[in-house]
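Re: that chain you flagged

S.,

Sorry for the slow reply, it's been a week of failed gels. I finally had a moment to sit down with the sequence you sent. For the record, here it is as I used it:
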Amino acid sequence: MSIKIGDLVKIKYNGAIMQLRLIEEIGGDIVTPESPVGQALIGKKKGDVFTIRTPEGSAEIEILGYDGEYWDNEKWLIDD
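Prediction finished late last night. Pasting the structure tokens below so you have them in one place:
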């Protein structure tokens, strides 16, 4: 299962660990699918490392995890 709109994504962004919610509205720790980071996150999976270009220069991003990786076909993929 890969990252999709609505997922809470934990990333390492140029060495800093942060969590971002990928939704279509702007605000706070929210990333839109149209943003450079949002475009790059769609379809990625835990462990993926990639570089994006931002207005400030390039940034390396590593996917540390996301909430969608634990939910598939209306079933949790982890034990209680």
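What I noticed first: The domain at 8-76 is CATH 3.10.50.30 (Chitinase A; domain 3).

Talk soon,
D.
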